[in-house]
Design goal:
This protein has about 450 residues and is an all-alpha fold. It has helices at about 35-45, 55-70, 70-75, 80-90, 95-110, 115-120, 125-145, 150-175, 175-180, 185-235, 260-275, 275-285, 290-320, 320-340, 345-365, 370-375, 380-410, 415-440; strands at about 10-15, 245.
Length: about 450
């Protein structure tokens, strides 16, 4: 019986004869070959994703450890640094000024996606991942030595965010090489690393700051990141050979799809408001009378709850589609952002932290799933990268805007209204994206 061949998209230029192993060495020169023989071999090599196996799950472990060190440490734990800098280390700076450090971190996690996505498609994977891992570890230890605002902005803001963004984009993109039918639940599992990091780092910070001081607290964080990324570098790998998808760094044809274009806009609007509550939650808790020591735990509570949200979102996404999961839960996150400034008791803040963590976790865990589905797998790195780079604008401006509103009004009600409203705008845009993608009001999407 003739072997069934997988169709090759017309915009893909094959650039390599598949090797016997299932990996491509970084720096390997890719010869220009387009013969039918090479096409047949590539079609067999690039067959269906295995959706399981030891190798595939080891890649999931590596990607989960990557989110632990990026979103778990850099993003989800920033509220600890924001509160400590406001109260101690940078007490002469305004909350909005300090928030620029965190927002630059957020931005650079998303911003390199365009370049790293293109590099990923071309086969440059393990070397950029390793170099950036070393850079992130070094910056974590260097943060402990910073004393002035500009030093924190450069080391903790720019370079920590940049190195995090490079490894995050690659770790997320490689999942599509190994999983197809189970992609939703796998992305949920990968994003649990964010929840674990966002729980452990704030708790460790709260315990260590009062005992060993800022320097050794951040150094302890550095050793945690070193251990996690050491394992990740040993286990992460790609499955498919590199391809040269025509169009260079940008794939502007992707924007001919109105659903993709509008999804990029919704990413900007959502990130303008989504991180406001997590950034200012400890500060707002102390403002209503909570002890400084306990205020740090609200971040840990929110991030622990998000683990269940992320895992549940992944399972539901495989059943009903990622957008059908993202829309209602992002709406819940927006509503709770409105309610957060009015919580003045410990019980109320804990309740809001739990529900908000669960709801916001679903959005972050499935963030890249829709653009993954809006095109061919051979171009997934560039397509996801373009989305992340565009969404970086929201991450850059969101928390400083909230901090500026807080500084001018002297409270968190107006920042809550701003952030909640902009998140709800993104929910409306997601409704439209779903309709454009499906061509109808209802269905799996």
């Amino acid at each position: 019986m003739a072997e069934e061949k997988t169709a090759i998209p017309p915009d893909v230029e094959l650039r390599v004869t598949p090797p016997k192993s299932d990996t491509i060495r970084d720096g390997q020169k890719l010869p220009e070959k387009t013969s039918q023989d090479i096409t047949d071999k590539y079609a067999k090599y690039a067959g269906d994703a295995p959706d399981g196996g030891i190798k595939a799950w080891s890649v999931v472990l590596a990607s989960m450890l990557t989110t632990f060190c990026t979103f778990g440490y850099v993003n989800s734990s920033w509220g600890v640094f924001q509160a400590y800098y406001e109260q101690d280390l940078l007490s002469d700076k305004s909350p909005s000024t300090i928030a620029w450090i965190g927002s630059v971190q957020y931005t650079f996690i998303y911003l390199p996606g365009l370049a790293t996505g293109r590099l990923f498609d071309l086969g440059h994977f393990k070397i950029p991942y390793f170099v950036s891992s070393c850079g992130l570890i070094a910056c974590t230890f260097l943060t402990a030595e910073c004393k002035q605002y500009w030093q924190f902005l450069v080391v903790q803001g720019v370079f920590t965010g940049l190195f995090s963004g490079i490894i995050y984009a690659q770790a997320i993109s490689v999942i599509s090489h190994w999983f197809a039918k189970k992609k939703g639940i796998v992305l949920g599992i990968v994003s649990i690393g964010t929840s674990i990091g966002g729980t452990l780092f704030p708790i460790a910070g709260q315990k260590l700051l009062s005992h060993v001081g800022f320097k050794w607290t951040v150094r302890a964080f550095g050793f945690m990141v070193l251990f996690a990324l050491g394992i990740a570098n040993l286990t992460i790998d790609r499955r498919l050979p590199p391809v040269n998808v025509k169009g260079g760094l940008l794939n502007l044809s992707a924007f001919r799809n109105p659903a993709y274009t509008l999804y990029c806009i919704s990413g900007i609007t959502c990130l303008l408001g989504l991180y406001t509550m997590l950034t200012y939650l400890p500060v707002s808790a102390t403002a209503v009378g909570m002890s400084k020591d306990f205020a740090f735990y609200f971040l840990a509570i929110a991030n622990a709850a998000s683990a269940l949200g992320r895992l549940s979102a992944g399972y539901l996404a495989d059943q009903i589609g990622p957008l059908n999961v993202m829309i209602p839960f992002t709406g819940v996150a927006g509503i709770l952002t409105f309610a957060w400034p009015y919580a003045s008791t410990q019980g109320a803040l804990i309740g809001i932290s739990v529900i908000y963590g669960f709801a916001s976790g679903t959005y972050i865990s499935l963030l890249v799933a829709p653009p993954m589905a809006m095109g061919d797998v051979s171009d997934v790195g560039r397509r996801v990268g373009m989305f992340l780079t565009i969404a970086a604008l929201g991450a850059l401006l969101g928390t400083p805007i909230s901090g500026l509103i807080n500084a001018r009004t002297g409270g968190f009600k107006d920042p809550g209204i701003y952030a909640g409203a902009i998140v709800m705008v993104s929910v409306l845009l997601l409704f439209v994206v779903r309709y454009l993608h499906l061509g109808q009001l209802y269905g799996k999407c």
